Amino acid sequence: MTTDFFVKRRFAVAGSLAVLACLSLVCAAPAQASGETDFNTYCGACHSIGQGRRVGPDLAGIHDRRSQDWLEKFVKSSQAMIKSGDAEAVALAAEYSNLVMPDAVISAAQIKAVLSYIRDSASPAAAVVPGTVESLAGAAPAAAEPSPAAEVVPPSPADIETGQALFEGSQRFENGGAACNSCHHVRNDAVMGGGILAAELTTVFSRMGTPGLRAILGAAPFPVMQAAYENHVLTEAEVGALVAFLQYADSEEYNQLPRDYGIGLFLTGIVGAAILFLLFGTVWRGRRVASVNQAIYDRQVKSVSDTQ
Amino acid sequence: MDIRSQISMIFHLDKCIGCHTCSIACKNIWTDRKGVEYQWWNNVETKPGTGYPSKWEDQDIYKGGWEKSGSSIKLKGAGKVKGLGNIFHNPHMPVIDDYYEPFTYKYLDLIESPAGDDQPTARPVSLITGKPIDIKSGPNWDDDLSGTPDYARKDPNLVNLSPAEQEAMFQLEKMAFFYLPRICNHCLNPGCVASCPSGALYKRGEDGIVLVNQDVCRGWRMCVTACPYKKTYYNWHTGKSEKCILCFPRIEAGLAPACMHSCVGRIRYLGVVLYDADRIEEVASSDDKDLVQNHLDLILDPHDPAIIKAAKENGIPDSTIRSAQASPTYKFVKDWGLALPLHAEFRTLPMLFYVPPLLPVMASLGKSDPAQLDKMGPVVKQWNDDWLYDTSTDDIFGTLDNARFPIEYMASLFSAGDTEMVKARIQKLMAVRIHRRHVTVGDISAEKSAEALKQAGLTAKMADDIYYLTSLAKFDDRFVIPASHREQAIEMMEFTGDKKGSAGFGFKEGTAQRGL
């Protein structure tokens, strides 16, 4: 079947951790396998099971904290729940700076499969990684957060250069995907300005770290990006280069010239223009603007209009 | 001593009839193009009047010409510092309405309009925008409008006259005017040349004609401000400035400039004068009272052997020196002392001289004597009151002080305010008339004629010469044009041997393409 082929291909490019976990677990049940695949495809970019917090919370032991029903509804459409005023959902959104979790594009059955995959795989993992379970009260989210800075290895200049070329589109993606700056912008003097259709990525590395970026670039959880790269999957080398570039752009953020002065720039412009106009007006106040015959012309025009 | 030659002109205002033939001749040859429709390199103004562009003489408005600065002079509205400061924002230029917005009429509408109830009309359209306009002004809009409050009474030259004198000038019975034809003065100390940031204007070495190099001009228009006579103009189509070129292609061919050639009243004379270029700054920096006399003294005697020698050493050809000796300009300005420069106080040392008009001065209004009137016969115009238009010569020069045209007005135009200088010239003109009337009509006695000549400082011979050059002169007497020696000029630029054998019947450029 084509889906099987597709799934297999996804395996090849997905994170090695998930693959290893799958192999070690002797995944015979089809439902189990489909749950794992869907998790890696749609959830893995932002969530981990027992590897700590990424963009979204670590999902290890999630069933201890939430009911199955609540989870199904939340995965289906987190926004709908937040809008409906569910207290837990609203608190969760606030904790994660109102970052939107995309609505599920998979069927209710698939959601169930994913949730059961999470429950099944969490128990051994939870024992390995202690202290990842966070309370809803958010007692110490900072402590639970894995620090990307701690595992940062400076990228190689060659990778940065390749990543920049790929980001700008001066070098094509091997599978023909659209260049990143079609939709994304990175504030960096060396790079041409990018689009504003999608998120600004200057500090994305600080927020997500290498695993998060790799996961997103490997299998984007965002519907638009997903559609755009569905048939143009990035290669492993390309993902590595892009992550290297984004890491570099993040570290260089404060060295970039076009600083954002906000409203100050606009106000300075107005004050500056006012000063210049005042200066021009003073220096050239004696300029002739009307003809010496203006009085005659004015009178002529007046007399014409009088007679009409 | 640095003797140079200058082509210099005389305009005899007493002969100008204000027909504008000169203006039309010039317009048809040089300024009948897009962008220069409003330019009149030659124009004829009615004086008193505001002229073209309006009030051009008022340098408080236009900041043209030079002003004294210590022992030297500086440009009033341009120059290095002022020019740089105003280079993108030249503040004192005339606007198009100071000249006039050029227009034409949609004549084709007269014959191409479809049949209708109304007579078709030719609407005026602007030559600048191409859109219909209400004509507000035109060239010579104030022609013959002496006495009008809009034009004549706003003449900048009236500033030295008391309100009573001004009022007297514009009394209906006393009203008078004359014409002032103007072209570029081809000054010895041209403000336009000094002001140009690009160095596009230059004064030709061989004959002193001031020209704008169209390849160098960048259209800064500093010359438009700097010329106090407003005789450099901006071509809005090419973005370059243009001015009177004294028809140099005609001059080089030995022909008089078009305006002079076409002059109906034959008021124009042209000839070469020699001057000392080393003294230009000194003369231009003279005090106001000495300015005109020093200006006239700058012109040297071409008959003086020392001058001739110095001129030859400076490379002036013999033919030019011979032309200078026969120059009508030299005769009018120096031999006879009849001509004066226009507005010498602008300190550009103009090389166009004017013989002041006599006619408005000659006659005065006096009480008519009923006994005299009876003798005059029926053709004499007699007003109901007892004023008379008096042209009698009973009292030699008696009418001069009692003139209906104040001498101060003439002095403001021609002698930087020195009335004696104008008076002396008008006396000479009158003396020549008295002398010739004695010779031809005979109703004036020899004693009276001799007395008039003596008072004016003329001899009978000089008076006859003046009469000849004024009234009888032929083309070659009026225009003594020096050979331009183009063969020498071209030899300075290139070796003429290079051209030998390379030009014949047509020119060959590259290899002929036969299409085979």
General description of the model:
The complex is a heterodimer of chains A (308) and B (516). Chain A has 308 residues and is an all-alpha fold. Chain A folds into three domains: 145 residues, Orthogonal Bundle (Cytochrome Bc1 Complex, Chain D, domain 2); 99 residues, Cytochrome c-like domain (Cytochrome Bc1 Complex, Chain D, domain 2), CATH 1.10.760; 42 residues, no CATH class. Chain A is built from 15 helices and no strands. About 13% of the residues of chain A have low confidence. Chain B has 516 residues and is α+β, with helices and mostly antiparallel strands. Among the domains of chain B are: 214 residues, no CATH class; 117 residues, nitrate reductase domain fold (Orthogonal Bundle), CATH 1.10.3650. Helix content of chain B is 34%, strand content 14%. Chain B has a five-stranded mixed β-sheet, with helices on both faces. In chain B, strand 3 and strand 4 form a beta hairpin. In chain B, helix 19 crosses helix 20, helix 20 runs antiparallel to helix 21 and helix 20 packs across helix 22. The longest helix of chain B has 22 residues. The termini of chain B are far apart. The model of chain B has no long low-confidence stretch (mean pLDDT 88).
